[in-house]
Batch of 4 targets.
Target 1
Amino acid sequence: MKFQEGDKIIVIATGEHGAVVEWINKKMLTIDVGGVQFPVYADQIDFPYFDAFTKKKSAPTKRSTSIEIPNREKKPVRNIPRDGVHLSFFPILDKDVFDEDVFSHFRVYILNHTDDRLMLHFRVFFKEQKELETKHAIAALEDLYLFDMSFDRLNDHPVFNFDFSLEQANSQKASHHAVSYKPRPKQILTLSEKTVKEHNASFSFVLFQAYPEKGMEVSAERTSDLKMDTMVDGSIDLSQLLKAGFKVQRKR
């Protein structure tokens, strides 16, 4: 393969620099850009030295006694709508013994599409037994990787518990906001197939649209019936995903 884990890369569409984390399959890999990890196609990135060699060199200019201070390179601005906090699923494909595409697992993310820096206490239950518990800080307008979940675990009655709070206390806002999410296996599988067929990278559910005001400290339960929205990352083109024709396979 052209790229190896740890290789320094550049995103062709945006000019952002990052590094290869791992290969997902023969066509897609995970990269890290500024601490945010997400999948891309191999043809959407290149080595940074290639970009440097292909840039046109500026014509030599006359020497000047004045000193010019170079401008800092500006990071491309991501156009993110302020539409709430989302739970996002990336269906990951693998090959079976017949070299056919099969579903392997999900990569689960939280998308903070708000201007608030949030604290998150996250717990996962399977068959009413707690399997994972983590705590995170999520910056405004940033994405956070939570964990990988194999497709077969959908049959174990998973429950995701989220308890959000503001990093900076605000007397006008609720002290915390709890959301419980219960995925439905058939709906999640259907959405996974639909996502890949439509050449999208992921599907998402809105956990809440705005952090609640003081006095609204309530627990909300969410299921797969929530409004679904396909994740769009303004900095990366994640189209042209693999064609459909799926089976479910236990993650090895």
Note: The mean pLDDT is 77.
Target 2
Amino acid sequence: MYFDDIPTVPTADELIDRVLRRAAKKMREKTNKRRADEDFVRSITQASHDKLVAIIQSFPNFEELPPFYRDLCDILFGMDNLKMNLGMVGWAAKNVRDVGRFISTGMRRADTLVERRRAVARIASIIHRADDALHYLNDVRNVLRKLPHVNPDEFTIVVAGYPNVGKSSFIRLVSSAEPEIASYPFTTKGIIVGHRIAERRRKIQFIDTPGLLDREGEERNAIEKQALNALVYVADIVLFVIDASENCGYSIEAQFKLREEIEEITSVPMVTVVNKADVKKYEGFFNMSTVSGEGVEDVLNELLRIRKENMIKEVVDIRSELPVPEMRRHGGRTKSKKDAY
């Protein structure tokens, strides 16, 4: 995954403490006091600069991420805000290097103890100015590492609909995902990914999205925007779930209006299914109940049928799976062992 290797981002105090302890250890090994002070300043300068640069480099280049993850990061954090905080850490790295080099260069002509203390104070002050950015980036890191892995190469079924219509319950029945199930809306706070093994051990990827509401794009919150992001970028099929009983708290008319909106923004097949059929059915669509299990298998089979129709047929050359006969040279031409006798 793109975010698994991002290490914990230290605070300004943690970073300074580590750098000073490492430099002090090296200083104790020196016998020349004047040279030791100079080396101490060079050491904290280089270590501080390198650590700040390493923090920036530990984050991926967000512009090179797949569109799904790039837009997801923009929804969650705001790309401008992310870049501004990474830029602040970069500013601190540059200034630490410049100040440290300037002070260490003049130390041979001054009181080294005074200059050493000045260098520590100046460098610490610069790093502390980036403390808010360091805290922010660590919060971002903690969120990014928890994002589910969405594989763009796997066939993906995105489940959408109003809150509390039974999307998570369906995902739980047909895949490996274990979303939280509750009787109140917006239980799902972000996308949840599950898998199911199909023929020839190919994986099908199911994505459980947060509930959507029928309202203008600018009025939608970050949770809803995550659902739209999955629909636009990774869906091969959309399964739209409707609650005809209206126990979800939303009218059947509003649910169908949202269905029409999603049809307009996606270009992939859509299957509409009515859940809670044990309470109320709706003619003309697949009906199921994730409570009793009625109709769930029929819906799954329909999704698998559409998947099979839309998959690019894989050409398998069975000759590649046959054993290659051992060959040897004989009389200027190549023969198999069988031909040689």
Note: The beta strands are 155-161, 192-197, 203-208, 237-243, 270-275, 286-287, 327-330, 333-336.
Target 3
Amino acid sequence: MNNPNLLKSIGLNESRVEDFERGPQSLVGDFEVDSSSASAYWTKSQDLLSLLPTKSKRTVDESLAVKELFDQSRVHRENYLRVHAHALYDRLTQNKTQFLRLDELLEHSAELVPGLTPSAEILHQERELIQSQKDGYEIDQGLFLSHVLAHQSSGLHLCHSMLLEHPTTREHRERFMKEGRLDLEGVSLRRQNNATHLVFQNGKYLNAEDDMTLANTEVAADLAILDPNSNIAVMRGSEIEEGKYKGKRTFCSGINLTRLYNGKIPYLWYIERDMGIVNKIYRGLATPEHSANEILGQTKEKLWIAVIDQFAIGGGCQYLLVTDINIAGDNAYLTLPARKEGIIPGVANMRLPRFVGDRIARQAIMMERRIECDTEVGRMICDEVVPSEKIEATLSQTIERITSSGVVSASGNRKAFRVSQEPLDLFRQYMSVYAKEQAYCHFSPALISNLEKNWDARNRKLKA
């Protein structure tokens, strides 16, 4: 340890401290042996952590001790994962014959190798805290997912798993197919004029995305893709009922910063979003028999149109990088305020340079550059930029133009673009980096200070 006397100096049980300070047993390469010894070491660390006060009540030395315990455990955790992540994934998925979504995979990993990822009990305790008071146990989920994704066959299998129908899609399918409409918390779905319209409906937060809306929005996207009675999917925001934008449609204002600050959005939300709904819009839906691999795989996909009436902020802008046609009002704008939030804007770091070039992408992500839709740069992302009163007509004309000439080639053309720009394996590699880096960002003190400074987060209240 960096300070071998620190743990003893704050009054922790000396025998427990000495036992922990002996360090983990060396890895021998045998899964059972290494898992058992590693689990024992992580349990010792957790036992010491449980003896310390909660974050808000710790002394400076106690805070340093907590950091030291986490740091040392994570060094060994990463060493273990470098050797055994692939074998562990095979155990959890029965040699890749079973498809587990991220939450299931992490739950089973915590049971099979205790201490590798946080237990259900620890996650429950952390969930009750505001973001600044969490200890960041979920970072260990990010380390695990990063190593799984880093291994090609395991990572591609996990990507495949997340491109299958959401577990709750089936329970809504019959109703939507019969009625042509569906209302879920945060999103609605309507079939109209040969298109299925997915509409963000979280108006009290300017159609932001959060833990209450993500699963429902993914279900809606699944149903839009699967709908046999439409050829196109449209993504748009609903009208806002109060405040500055009352009576106006807003597309999506990105992650709900109020719920983020209050600790309601788990780390896994980011990974589920980009490997789930965003990737489904880009690649389509896979089946257990057919992956999304561009060479030998096969997906069910549709052409997507996004309509931006006022703005697309953060995650909203990220959607525009995977949709096929973007229609915007001439007063609309796009932003990716990741620096001001202290997080990584999903897969935008890889996708945005394809649209506007590397320098402008860096300016947008790292220097808060605002992109007006009715500019040369804005038109690199938006295909149609029209006065706001002409948006409806432009959308109808676009749908008519596409469907009148047939959409049979749409999936083939989409796949042809992907195989040269972002094949599934490239996405896997990106997500391996993102899974780890976003985990540390999500629990960084900088995130809290950024939200307080740039969002006035302390004075914003959760809305019923």
Note: The mean pLDDT is 95.
Target 4
Amino acid sequence: MREDEALALDAADPLPTLRSEFHVPPSAGRFPEVAYFAGNSLGLQPRATRAALLTELDDWARLGVAGHFEATHPWLPYHEELRGPAARLVGARPEETVVMNSLTVNLHLMMASFYRPAGDRRRILIEDNAFPSDSYAVRSQAAFHGLDPDQDVVRMPVDSIVDYLAREGERVALVLLGGVNYLTGEVLDIPAVTAAGHAAGCLVGWDLAHAAGNIPLQLHDWGPDFAAWCSYKYLNSGPGAVAGCFVHSRHLADPALPRLAGWWGTNPATRFLMRPVAEPVPTADAWQVSNPPILAMAPVRVSLEMFDRVGMAALRAKSERLTGYLASLLEGLPGLRVITPTDPARRGCQLSIRVSEAGKLAEVLREEDGVVTDVREPDTIRLAPAPLYSTYHDCWRAVEALSRRLR
């Protein structure tokens, strides 16, 4: 494990790092910047974000309410600027995509439309180690419908889901899974699970918090009924950033589909006639309930422009190279066990390791070695070499530090 080999890989990689386009925190170790592996929790800040925010603040100061029409990026149709790049990011049609709210709010809005328990078909199927917020959301939805969450929310190991749907699918109303598991980094087979759910008569939705900006997606072609994702992890749009949402085109013009309505979901051509009854448009915009938060959307616009410029195919290829290199360095290291699948097709840019006293180890790595990781108690450290800004040298630094600390 040689440092010069890592540096040579960085110099030769066909997609040079865009690290210089990000603010990388300073390091307390012997290197000037940290090796940042926590982009699966909060991505780094693009340098262009500050200027984008200042532009909106200056337009607000200069124009007041006229900024809705005359700002550099007019506020009234602002969310429309994000529609195309968001759709390209997740493999959707523009009309199927909207940037709005936060992830769990969007999941609740989707379940208001797509979780319609009736008769024996009332279960919600989630993975057994789903992200807690997803578990809270689906349990509260079951309770909202007067059901028992302990009975009607079914938790299932991911490798058992397709068989369960074939066996018990007639009792399942909704399948809602994470596209990439937050704990292990495992990529689920989204098209296969979606097809299995539909074959059993279920509606199928996906939480893509750890998938958007991490793996290539083809939501329209794969055909789930809906999906939602956040923008503060791999999409680098800031803490609590505005999220994204997908509704498949087959549902967009269905007048019988219930939805929770609000100001920005009505027809923009008649919005300011102030009519008391909403006129939903046949796009994902119909699920919007509030006008866009411009200061929160500016960082999302910056991020999506960057992903459009680089492209998910190039990012995924580099992700596989970086993660494969990190995995090779971790092989044989004593005192840890990698729990992420070894097959590159079944993992994103994350390797999760099980190790004793994970929290203490992560603190030492950060404070003494300048290696920033993410901990999930009681025993898991997650390392996410995000291809936009992580380097082979970062991977070398992480494993070199681990090898010293695990002796």
Note: The longest strand covers residues 172-178.
